[in-house]
Automatic annotation (TrEMBL):
Residues 8-127 form the LysR substrate-binding domain. This is Transcriptional regulator, LysR family. Pfam families: LysR_substrate. It comes from Pseudomonas syringae pv. maculicola. InterPro entries: LysR_subst-bd.
Amino acid sequence: TIDESADFGLFVSHKHPLAALERVDYQQLARYRALRLNTLVEHSIPTDDLPTSGHRHWSAPNYLLLMDMAAFGFGWSALPRWLVSRYSGGLLKELKVAGWPRRSAVDIIWSFERSLGPAGAWLLDSLVPFAGE
């Protein structure tokens, strides 16, 4: 469902040292490689409050690659929980970190000059139940 796609958790391989900890804090996260989504945002501008381990972070262009990198034990990553539950094959463990899991904001942009097709109309109705009122 649309609702669950906004939940993100922090995940590592079951073999990663962080997986052995009952609870994890940001200082512990900072000791290990962060696996981050590579976006168009300038890298010097922080987009969240997660530690970056200095220069010890790797990036990937999509969440599937990040999930694979985490499953191979290359580091920890913030991933959509629905993606992990459906496609990780049980290879990842969700870390217990204060403030996590988190919901991610979703922006909706469309043109009033062109009507939405069936898929666009469904998505808009799902994300904004009262947009037409």
